[in-house]
Structure formats: structure tokens, C-alpha cells
Task: inverse folding
């Protein structure tokens, strides 16, 4: 039985097709989910893709957080279903309070698109088991509001509990506190990151294929579960 | 104020009308009265004035543009010819591609962010209206002097606007140009190109046929944006002494446009659409008259049904409004409900505003009264056409006599080295990644090549790896010296860039940015460029599928360089065979393809080192370009070369430096016999490229070049971490990189 | 019809790169003596019916749950005379 | 030290996609009765020295030439009691 991974399309989602492709290349069964739909169609995990949901007007991810589908996603995530938020998806997860903190305007005020080196610090989440802790990878980064912020206590807590999943290497691209590129919840099923692993799954179109393990990790986790 | 109805107009033939303020000439106003057999109503006058503006009617350029059709080479690739919103090209496997470049020059000077953003928005809607899914954008840009304070205002705003709109729309930016020259100071050129892909059976055309079919306006509500913008902004010289002419600026909503793309494509997929038209310049005036003019019947529109953002708008203003992110579709009555449901799914406002009638008139009603009753062709297609006087500029001979070949040259290796560094660090030749890093090049996951590669390349089919490549080029300095040759050189460079990546050039789009057509010298430049481009397209077998003309690019009497920008589209059967530009493999052999002559007129070297523009541009040899392209394509297909980079402004040394920095490997070069090192490095002779050949392929490659008669000269080897010219100088990559990368951020960050 | 204004500002401890960029630019433009700049958002809401305590409470809830992200932002709510925004000084 | 506030709003005739997006979202969140939303910017400037007419004139010039883009935006300038921004109601 193949594992069904849902990818939500909000109005303004842009990297949904890429996330579906990454799921397929990883060997999963990609399932399209629609923002107005509260039913998750028996998926085993959900990806919230990159883009500008609802134009990212007001704040990135703020309007998407209140869409019907997110009601169910939040409920299921709390019950342990793996959820990955990429870029805009990460912003939605923060706005939903499934992950702490928030993402703010890049400190240099420009949109930045570049190939970003990262260290995978936590290789023990639903989405990172196929990496080894400390592994260095390069995947695309592209955003205008990717600066991760949280209060000091939250940051300390994230560090102490090993919940920083990926960290920027070779220079902080956006002013993120403590070079944080992605984090997880305490249970390790919900992960959000600004860089785009779904754009690094084919040598032809990506800088590397080092984003693929995000998608293979969750498939293994679900098969073993 | 009483409503100026058709009846009222007929009864008040002598009422004064502001035709001059609306940009019409007296003879044009008389022509309108003749067509209608009475004076036009206010709404009719608004429609004619905006549709007969230079921007919409091409009244000065039409007679010259005709050549693109008349001289079009026979090409099996053309599915829809020039004349539709954008031409359609067959790229094989049942796929068709449409692409077009358009200008948004004046609005981008007034309000750089929104001007550039809505430029992207407009060209993308053109592509959707053909039934294609937009897959990539490009942005050829030209600004005033890099160190001028106003460039600091305009460039960051334009770049942010293009990024802000394109990124939010989810279209990868795969290339463009950034050129600085004082001639663009008060008149930057912001051109935008979009590429779309569809299946052959999905081609849609703008026409309203079928009596009783409904006209549906969908997308954003109509507001007071850019009223008169099309006619006043684009047709009259931009004159800073008349601030009152500054029109309201349109604000773009890329999110709304993303929804328009999705709902339009869904409606196409369900075959709900008979005809479709985007709303661009001249808004509803343009959409209704063009749809009706292209169709078989007439059209009746109830203006009261147009959803408004600003309820105080007059009917004339509603007709002229250039509110962005709107489209107009013609739909059979039985399919209207389904069409509206799709719009509802995507949160897009959609309203039936009229229907196709069995008459031959476009009739528009407001509050139950008829305010427009016109033959639609007279508005949309049969506008005035001018054969404007032309005169070869009197300064041209003196300019051409001032040859760049006579300029002082570097006398030794140290001087060469210093000038290479100056060239590489000059704003036009420096690294543009501070700009291109603000653009998403990854979205959609099909970008095979993007900046700084010679052309952008997009995978069209994931199963077969079919792809397309596009490049845009133009050199205003060459065109100033010789507009006929300049247009051909723009085409040649773009064609060469496409071939350098391994794709076969198929078709051309162009954006002709020129000064005032009312100046005989400007008109002559325009005519020469059109003739040059049409002639060259004939030789290269690449038809012009569409494009855009932007005239009146001048500030007062100061005209821009004539700047034809040419986009070439190519096809590649297997994108995994693409040729990148990076020299990366130590030990590979560097070959220079083509002939190098002493050609420095209009060159980057003459600009950077001597601030000079004079003489003649490099010679055009289109047969050579064609041969070079064939070699580059064969070599890519058969795996004979690992890298290729075309030679253009800056000559050989610029190309080698770029390829070395891209791959992180150095090059040891030897000046070929019979060439002077300076000419070897800086000449801008055309029809050339530099390639990196694995040693195992050398024989096969040189045999092929020999057999086909293309000069191929071994000029060195990929090696070390410096660019070295034997016996002259060595430049460490680190030093080159820091000079090359610093310039643009130092100016604009 | 009444207008309620919601002002949203980043909390003082959160870095405000936009405000900083403005502040850095001012001396270059010849404006001295501005010791700090913060940039926030202003929402003008046109409210149907009377702006009584109940209505204001609703707007406050709207601000708290939606218009502001209270993880990083503070907000204030106040009533303003409706009507068009005062024009820019010529 | 005094605080001067500059409010910048899009001119009424200019499309405000941000405000529209907020307004469209409100009913979905259960907030009814908001007939229009416009979103603008708020700048808080801390000014050295007295905020007299001369100082205000300078801020107005700053707003006109820099903080607002008067092609599409209007602005207002006013003095506000300095001190930290009033906290959000808990
Ligand atoms: N405004 C821009 N937007 C996107 N890409 C750009 C832009 N300007 C330059 N580029 C890219 O940078 C590279 C170098 O540009 P250029 O020197 O003009 O190339 P060429 O000389 O080969 O035409 C090309 O890949 C080009 O597409
Ligand atoms: Mg090139």
C-alpha cells in the first residue's frame, strides 16, 4: 500500500506542484488538498507548500491559517500526524501556533533567492530521519519574510530540546535569530523550514538532490509506524 | 451634467469636444465624425481617442511592421501568425509555445515599483489569453548612468516591482538584461517577456462569435486607475513641466492575477470559452471593440453591470479605466453557469456584462440609454495610419567617422590587465546577481537554466524532457551607429545565445524602443531597424511572432539610443543535453569559434575605457551565425562540448572571465597567430563563441567544424585559478570575482 | 458609518529592519535629529452601525486574533472621525 | 524627546489589495459588519529637541519626499506623547 501525502493548495500557493512532484519522486502517492475542504481524504501526512497564500497580504500565512482545511490539519497535527511546512507553509504553522515564534521581513529588506547551505541538526523528526545529525546540505532558499524570531526564552527552549531542525551555514541570509532555518514541535511530527527541499530533488532543476530525504523520511516513518 | 447619449450627440452636432486634450489630431477627430455620420458621444470619443493612440493603434509604426509578415520566412513552426495577441509556435510532441515581450517604460519612470510590476502583469495576461499556461518571465531593463542619483531611485524600485509581482505570481524569472547608459536617464526601458505553454488543441483567440453568447468580465473590480494612461502616458512626450499630465498610477495585485491564471486555465480545460481577451491598455474599450471586431457579429454591453471599485466613475472613465487583473470572456449561454462557478471556486468576481448580437455594431448602454454605437472595426483595427516623414540624421556621418579603432590602446601586459579589470568591474559587464537574486528562479520546478546562463531554459514535458530556451538581447550603442545593423545584431546575439545552450532557434519576438516618431530622424531609425530585423529574420528562418513598439522615449529633445530588444525562442528535444556556460573541468580545451577582426565600434571597451561611441558596429554575417548555431547544437546533442558561452559585449575576455567564475576554474590562454592580444581580448566581432572541449572529443569536434567550414581556433586550456594570457598577464579568479561582484551592490545595496 | 483605526507595531524587542532602513536613509537625505524610527501598520476599518463598547470589543478581538500577531506585535484600537483621509499638504 | 507619527495611506482611488484581502477574510472569521478596510503604514519618529513648527515642517517634508510616495499615497503628521507604545490588551 502506498503512502498518501497530501499537499494543500491555498489560493496563492505556488510550490504545490513542486511538493507533489517531490512526493512522487520519493515514492509516495501525492494527493491534492483544497483549502476550502475540511476533509483530508485519508492522507497519512500533509505538506503545506511555499507561495503567497492569499497574496500574503496582512502577514505571511495569516489568512491561510483560518482556512477550513487548516482546522483539520491543526487537529490532526496535534494528534501526531506528520506535517511539513515549507516557507509559506512554515509561516502558516507559526501563525497556527503549531510552532512557536514568527517569521519577519528579511533584515536586508529584499526578496532573496539563492542556493543555501544548511546543517541538519535534528535527524530525529518525522521529516528528517533519512539525514544524519550534522549533515550539511544545499537547497534553494527564496523568500522576502524569512527572518525567524521568538523571545529569548523560546529560543533557549528550542535549543535545549534540540528542536532546531536546520540551521543556516555560510552566512545568515535574512537575520534569523540564531541562524535558525527550521524547527520542530516537541513531538517531532510537525516541522517548518524556510528553505525549499522540494526544489532540490532532481539534478536537472535543482542545485542538488539533497532535499529528497525530507520526503523519503516521512514515507519510512509511516511505513514503520 | 446630462448624459451624452447617441441621441443627444446626433441632436447637438456643434457641441465642443475635448478631442485635442484626449490626444487626437484634428484630422482624426474629423475622421471619427465621418465614420459615425455625426459627432461622437463622450464615451465614443474616449474610446476612439484611446484606441487610436500610438500605443494601441501603432499608427506610426504599422507601415513598417508590415514587413515582419510580408518577409516572414516559411516556417513550419508557426501555428498562429503575427497579429493575434501573441504568435504561437509548434515545439513538437503536440506542444505549442507562445511568447511575447512588451514595454512599460513610462509608467516605470513615474512609479518604478508599480510601473514595473504591472508590466509583468500585463504581459502575463497576454499569454493567458492565448490559452497558454505562463511558465516563465524575463526582464530586459535599461537605466540611466549607474552612478546617477535618479538611477538609485528607479533601479531598486523596478527590480523590486518585477520581483514582487513575478515572485508572487509564481513564475520563474529565467533571464533578462541590465544595461546602463546616460541616454536612458529620464527614460528607463522596462521590457517584460512571458513564455507560455499549451497543447495544440488549446489555442484560444480573441473573438466574439455566436449570436446570444455572453460577454463575461472577470477579475478585479474597475477603479479609476490609469484613466487616459494609455493615450496620454504613452503617446505624448513625457514632459516634466506639465505635472498635471501625470496620470493616476495603476497598482498591481499579483495575487488576483494568480487566481485569474488558474480560473482561466480551468475554464479552457472544460472548453467553456469561445473567445477571450485580456484587459490591458484602454481597458474595456479595447477588449470589447477587439472582441467584437474579430468576431462575426456585433456586441451589446450594459456598462451598469461592470463591478466597480469606485462608484463615482463616469461611463467614459469606466470604458477607459486601466484597472489591472481583468479579463473578458465570451461564453455560450449554456456554459455561463459553469464558468461563473469556476470563478467562484477561485474567489474571482465575474459578471455577465453583455452579449454577442447579430448586428455589426458595438453598442454600449448606461442607465438604459445608448452611449456608444460604432462599427467595432473602426475603433479596434481601422485607425489612422501614418507614413511619417523620415530623414537620415545629419549627425550620423560625423559619428561614424569617429572610429573607435583609432582610440589609444594598452601598450603592454600590465595595461591590458588593468583594462580587463576595468571592463569586468564596469556596471554593464559586472555581475547582476544582486538583481537576479531578488527573483524566484525555482518555482514550478522546471527551470533547467536561468541567469547568468546564455539563455533561460524550461522543461516542457517531464516524461520526454522536451524543453524551450529563450534569450533577449539588444545593443542600443550598435543601433545608434547603424539602426539597420543594430537590429540585426540584436537578433544575432539572441539567436546565438539560444544556440549556445544547445537549443534550436525557432521564432522571434521584439520590443522596439525608439524616440519620437514625429522627429524624422527617430522615424528613420525606427524604419531602418524594422527593415534590418525583417531581413535578418528571413535569412535565419525565424519569423517574428509578435512584439511591441514603444515610441516617444525621450526627455525633451534628448532621445534614447534606438533600442530594438529581440527575444528568440528555441526548442531542445532533451534538456538533459543542454550546454551550460561554466568552465569547470581542469584540462579541457578552449576553442574559439568564428573569426576575430579588429572591430571596436560601439564596443564595451570603447565605452568603459574611453567613454566613446563612434564608428561602425561590428559586421553582421547571418550565414555565419547560422553555421555557428548548427555547430553548437550538434556539439551539444552529440556530447562533444561541456560548456559554451557566446561572445558579445566585452568580447572574448569578458566571456572567458564569466565562464571561469561560473565554474570556479581558471583558464590559460594563448593569443592565436596573427592576432594582436588587445584585439583578441576586446574585439566584438560577431558570430563567435568559446567552448570547452573534453580532450577525448577534440578530434571529433574539430573535424566537424572543419567539415562544415567554421573556423575553430584552440586558444587555451581550463587550468589553475587565474585567467592568464600567456606572455601578458595573469589575473587570479579571486581578484576578478571581487571586482566583478562588488560593483552593483556598491551602487545599489 | 464610523471609522475605527487599529495601529499595529512590532514589539519593542523585535528588530524592525524597515524602520532602521528609514532611519539610516534620513541623514543622507539631509534630515538630521531623528533618533529612532519604527514602522508599523495602520488599518482603517469602516464599521456599520454604532461604535459602542460592544463594537469596539469586537474590533479588539479582531486585532488580537487576526490583524496583529501578538507573538511579535502590539496593537491599539481607537475611533476616528470618518470621512476621507486628510489630504497631503500641497 | 518627542514622538511624531506619520500615517501613510494609499489614496482613496488607488487599489488597496492588502486591505481588500483583510476585508474578504473577516466574514470567514466570523466578523461581520465591516464595510471597508484600508491598510496603510505608520511611522513613529523619535525627534531630538522641541517639536515646534519648524520641526514639524521638516517631518512633513520628510514624509512628502521620502516616507510617502505622493504619486499614490496621502499622509498625515501628528505629535504623540512619547513613551512606549501602549501594550496590547491582554
Ligand atoms: N534583469 C535581469 N533579469 C534576469 N536576468 C538577467 C537580468 N539581467 C541580466 N540577466 C541575466 O544575466 C546574464 C548575463 O546577462 P548579459 O551579460 O546581458 O548576457 P548576454 O551578454 O549573454 O546576453 C544572462 O543570463 C541574463 O539573462
Ligand atoms: Mg550570452
Result:
Amino acid at each position: 500500500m502506498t503512502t498518501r501525502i497530501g499537499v494543500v493548495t491555498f489560493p496563492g500557493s505556488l510550490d504545490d506542484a513542486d511538493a507533489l512532484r517531490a512526493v512522487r519522486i520519493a515514492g509516495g502517492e501525492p494527493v491534492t488538498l483544497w483549502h476550502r475542504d475540511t476533509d483530508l481524504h485519508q492522507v497519512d501526512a500533509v505538506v503545506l507548500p511555499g507561495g503567497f497564500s492569499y497574496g500574503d497580504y496582512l502577514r505571511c500565512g495569516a489568512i491561510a491559517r483560518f482556512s477550513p482545511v487548516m482546522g483539520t490539519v491543526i487537529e490532526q497535527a496535534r494528534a501526531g500526524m506528520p506535517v511539513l511546512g515549507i516557507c509559506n507553509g512554515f509561516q502558516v504553522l507559526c501563525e497556527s501556533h503549531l510552532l512557536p515564534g514568527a517569521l519577519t521581513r528579511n533584515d536586508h529588506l529584499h526578496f532573496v533567492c539563492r542556493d543555501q547551505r544548511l546543517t541538519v541538526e535534528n535527524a530525529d523528526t518525522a521529516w528528517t530521519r533519512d539525514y544524519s545529525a550534522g549533515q550539511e546540505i544545499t537547497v534553494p532558499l527564496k523568500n522576502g519574510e524569512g527572518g525567524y524570531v521568538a523571545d529569548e526564552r523560546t529560543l533557549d527552549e528550542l535549543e535545549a530540546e534540540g528542536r532546531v531542525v536546520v540551521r543556516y551555514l555560510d552566512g545568515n541570509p535574512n537575520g534569523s535569530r540564531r541562524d535558525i532555518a527550521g524547527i520542530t514541535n516537541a513531538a517531532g511530527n510537525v516541522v517548518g523550514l524556510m528553505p525549499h527541499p522540494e526544489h532540490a530533488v532532481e539534478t536537472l532543476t535543482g542545485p542538488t538532490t539533497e532535499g529528497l530525504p525530507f520526503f523519503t523520511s516521512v514515507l519510512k516513518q509511516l511505513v514503520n509506524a | 451634467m446630462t448624459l451624452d447619449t447617441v441621441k443627444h450627440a446626433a441632436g447637438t452636432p456643434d457641441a465642443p469636444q475635448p478631442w485635442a486634450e484626449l490626444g487626437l489630431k484634428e484630422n482624426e477627430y474629423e475622421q471619427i465624425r465621418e465614420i459615425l455620420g455625426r459627432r461622437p458621444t463622450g464615451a465614443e470619443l474616449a474610446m476612439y481617442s484611446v484606441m487610436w493612440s500610438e500605443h494601441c493603434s501603432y499608427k506610426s509604426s504599422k507601415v513598417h511592421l508590415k514587413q515582419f509578415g510580408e518577409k516572414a520566412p516559411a516556417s513550419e513552426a508557426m501555428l498562429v501568425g503575427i497579429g493575434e495577441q501573441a504568435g504561437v509556435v509548434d515545439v513538437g510532441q503536440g506542444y505549442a509555445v507562445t511568447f511575447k515581450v512588451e514595454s512599460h517604460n513610462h509608467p516605470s519612470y513615474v512609479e518604478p515599483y508599480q510601473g514595473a510590476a504591472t508590466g509583468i502583469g500585463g504581459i502575463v495576461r497576454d499569454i493567458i489569453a492565448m490559452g497558454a499556461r505562463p511558465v516563465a518571465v524575463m526582464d530586459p531593463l535599461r537605466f540611466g548612468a549607474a552612478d546617477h542619483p535618479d538611477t538609485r531611485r528607479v533601479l531598486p524600485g523596478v527590480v523590486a516591482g518585477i520581483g514582487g509581482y513575478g515572485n508572487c505570481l509564481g513564475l520563474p524569472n529565467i533571464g533578462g538584461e541590465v544595461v546602463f547608459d546616460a541616454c536612458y536617464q529620464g527614460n528607463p526601458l522596462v521590457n517584460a517577456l512571458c513564455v507560455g505553454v499549451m497543447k495544440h488543441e488549446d489555442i484560444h483567440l480573441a473573438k466574439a462569435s455566436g449570436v446570444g453568447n455572453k460577454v463575461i468580465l472577470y477579475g478585479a473590480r474597475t477603479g479609476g486607475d490609469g484613466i487616459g494612461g494609455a493615450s496620454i502616458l504613452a503617446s505624448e512626450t513625457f514632459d516634466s513641466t506639465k505635472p498635471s499630465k501625470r496620470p493616476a498610477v495603476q497598482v498591481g495585485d499579483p495575487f488576483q492575477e494568480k487566481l485569474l491564471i488558474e480560473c482561466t486555465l480551468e475554464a479552457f480545460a472544460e472548453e467553456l470559452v469561445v473567445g477571450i481577451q485580456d484587459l490591458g491598455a484602454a481597458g474595456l474599450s479595447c477588449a470589447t471593440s477587439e472582441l467584437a471586431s474579430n468576431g462575426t457579429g456585433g456586441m451589446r454591453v450594459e456598462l451598469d453591470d461592470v463591478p466597480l471599485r469606485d462608484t463615482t466613475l463616469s461611463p467614459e472613465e469606466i470604458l477607459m479605466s486601466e484597472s489591472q487583473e481583468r479579463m473578458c470572456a465570451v461564453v455560450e449561454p449554456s456554459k455561463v453557469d459553469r464558468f461563473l462557478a469556476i470563478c467562484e471556486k477561485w474567489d474571482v468576481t465575474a459578471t455577465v456584462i453583455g452579449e454577442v448580437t447579430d448586428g455589426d455594431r458595438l453598442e454600449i448602454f448606461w442607465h438604459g440609454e445608448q452611449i456608444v454605437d460604432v462599427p467595432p472595426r473602426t475603433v479596434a483595427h481601422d485607425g489612422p495610419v501614418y507614413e511619417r516623414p523620415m530623414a537620415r540624421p545629419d549627425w550620423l556621418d560625423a559619428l561614424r567617422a569617429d572610429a573607435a579603432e583609432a582610440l589609444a590602446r594598452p601598450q603592454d601586459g600590465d595595461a591590458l590587465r588593468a583594462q580587463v579589470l576595468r571592463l569586468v568591474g564596469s556596471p554593464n559587464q559586472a555581475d547582476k546577481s544582486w538583481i537576479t537574486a531578488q527573483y524566484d528562479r525555482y518555482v514550478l520546478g522546471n527551470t533547467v537554466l536561468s541567469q547568468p546562463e546564455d539563455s533561460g531554459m524550461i522543461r516542457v514535458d517531464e516524461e520526454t524532457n522536451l524543453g524551450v530556451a529563450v534569450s533577449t538581447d539588444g545593443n542600443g550603442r550598435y543601433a545608434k551607429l547603424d539602426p539597420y545593423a543594430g537590429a540585426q545584431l540584436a537578433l544575432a546575439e539572441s539567436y546565438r545565445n539560444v544556440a549556445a545552450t544547445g537549443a534550436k532557434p525557432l521564432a522571434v519576438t521584439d520590443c522596439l524602443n525608439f524616440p519620437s516618431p514625429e522627429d524624422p530622424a527617430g522615424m528613420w531609425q525606427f524604419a531602418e531597424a524594422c527593415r534590418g530585423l525583417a531581413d535578418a529574420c528571413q535569412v535565419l528562418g525565424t519569423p517574428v511572432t509578435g512584439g511591441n513598439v514603444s515610441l516617444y522615449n525621450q526627455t525633451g529633445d534628448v532621445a534614447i539610443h534606438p533600442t530594438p530588444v529581440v527575444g528568440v525562442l528555441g526548442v531542445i528535444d532533451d534538456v538533459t543535453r543542454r550546454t551550460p556556460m561554466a568552465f569547470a573541468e581542469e584540462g579541457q580545451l578552449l576553442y574559439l569559434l568564428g573569426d576575430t577582426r579588429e572591430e571596436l565600434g560601439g564596443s564595451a571597451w570603447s565605452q568603459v575605457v574611453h567613454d566613446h561611441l563612434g564608428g561602425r558596429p561590428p559586421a553582421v554575417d547571418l550565414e555565419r551565425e547560422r553555421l555557428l548555431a548548427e555547430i553548437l547544437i550538434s556539439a551539444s546533442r552529440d556530447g562533444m562540448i561541456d560548456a559554451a558561452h557566446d561572445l558579445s559585449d566585452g568580447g572574448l575576455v569578458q566571456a572567458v572571465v564569466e565562464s571561469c567564475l561560473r565554474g570556479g576554474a581558471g583558464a590559460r590562454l594563448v593569443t592565436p597567430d596573427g592576432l594582436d592580444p588587445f584585439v583578441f581580448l576586446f574585439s566584438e566581432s560577431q558570430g563567435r563563441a568559446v567552448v570547452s572541449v573534453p580532450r577525448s572529443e577534440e578530434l571529433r569536434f574539430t573535424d566537424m567544424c572543419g567539415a562544415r567550414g567554421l573556423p575553430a581556433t584552440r586558444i587555451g586550456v581550463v587550468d589553475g585559478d587565474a585567467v592568464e594570457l600567456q606572455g601578458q598577464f595573469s589575473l587570479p579568479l579571486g581578484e576578478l570575482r571581487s571586482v566583478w561582484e562588488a560593483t552593483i551592490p556598491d551602487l545599489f545595496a | 458609518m464610523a471609522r475605527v483605526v487599529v495601529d499595529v507595531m512590532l514589539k519593542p524587542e523585535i528588530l524592525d529592519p524597515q524602520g532602521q532602513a528609514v532611519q539610516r536613509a534620513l541623514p543622507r537625505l539631509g534630515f538630521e535629529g531623528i533618533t529612532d524610527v519604527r514602522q508599523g501598520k495602520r488599518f482603517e476599518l469602516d464599521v456599520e452601525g454604532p461604535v459602542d463598547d460592544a463594537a469596539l470589543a469586537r474590533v479588539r478581538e479582531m486585532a488580537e486574533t487576526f490583524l496583529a500577531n501578538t507573538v511579535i506585535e502590539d496593537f491599539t484600537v481607537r475611533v476616528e472621525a470618518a470621512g476621507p483621509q486628510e489630504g497631503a499638504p500641497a
